[in-house]
Amino acid sequence: MRTLIADDHGIVRSGLRLLLERQPGMEVVAEAADGVEAFELARATQPDLCVLDVGMPRMTGLQATREIRAHLPGTHVLIVSMHDDERYLFEALKAGAAGYVLKREADQVLVAALRAIARGEPFLTNAAERTLIRRWMEEGARGPDEPLTAREQQIVKLIAEAHTNAQIAQTLYVSEKTVESHRANVLRKLGMRDRVELVRYAIRRGLVEA
Amino acid sequence: MSRHSPLARLLLRRHIAELAQEREAVDQLRTRLEAERRAAGAAAIRAQEQERQRLAQDLHDEVNQALTAILLRLEATIQESPPALREELRDTKRLAAQAMEELLRLSRRLRPAVLDDHGLMPALHTQVRDFSEQTGIRATFHPQGAPTRLSQEQQLAIYRVTQEGLSNIARHASAQRVKVELSFVGRTVLRISDDGRGFSEPRVGGSGLGGMRERAMLAGGHLSVWSGDGSGTRVELTI
Q: To the nearest whole angstrom, how far is the Cα of B132 from the nearest Cα of chain A?
């Protein structure tokens, strides 16, 4: 099983690599340090499996999951997260991840998780399952509350990380004019005036870490 | 000039009026100084909170990532090792996992992320639940009434007073049951009661009570404490 690993911490990547290469039948074919690199390398190497950290710069693990699932439907994605936060769990599954694993338990469940999702099965720990069910029952009452499109959320994250319009245009393969127009739309939709408010919004929505 | 001449009376009235004006000026100055002192205090506490958040962030990111890497490497090593070594390596792994749990718990206490992300009620639920789990003391949370709009500062004050109150109980009270109530009927009232040994000399300054009173005041509220030797303690924050 050819696997791509993505995490912005080099020491975690090397730990993952060490563990995965020890497993018969598994091979690490690519390493990425952020979401954009993860997506680009996935397209280039067409792995069977991707292990993606949630909190990465330029593009989060969740955003990268969406892109990878959209372009490489044969690739299964496992999300790894530092945070025992049900918001991320729910979003991960909605984004198309087949499994969700916490870093503190990764040493114990990672390999089993990867083998499960390689078979096309989902992987959740018991605690995650319970959280999911509980959240699902609560959410039934509320409606969707995200006013921004996926693309607009990407723009917000990059703006919050203080990239220039030129850099954002390069990262997303669009023109600067497009970036400017997205930026204006975002500020209008959210009723915000400036980058400072956007940063706060980005933190609240988990697009960047505080 | 006689004391009772019209001129004397006029001068006396003027003198009294001047004194009254000066008195008013002094009162105004005092009010302004008080407001400035309160603002400076609030700014100091805000700066302290931000520092705490930065600390929590650093703890989280760097140390826990390193512990993750250690756990992964140990697992890889265990799988490579002769059976004789495996048990020891597993013990080492358990230590690392415990350290990680402890750090995650610590940084949750420093930075109330759940307060920012999910609001005051879930944050208090989590706090009370964590307290029960860690100390083994039965603690329950009782919200009453529909939550009124509280400012960020007021929410943080309630959260911190609960945190310090529970921390004091864990350290000093030898309690078996703790009740945390938050009522929105009329004024907002937070009440933390325990059935522990109580204290007869209210501890001020330094730890616990002094900080709580300061927070209460800065949030525009008021802290009361009742305690008797051997008859438990009740801390009430009214906003």
A: 19
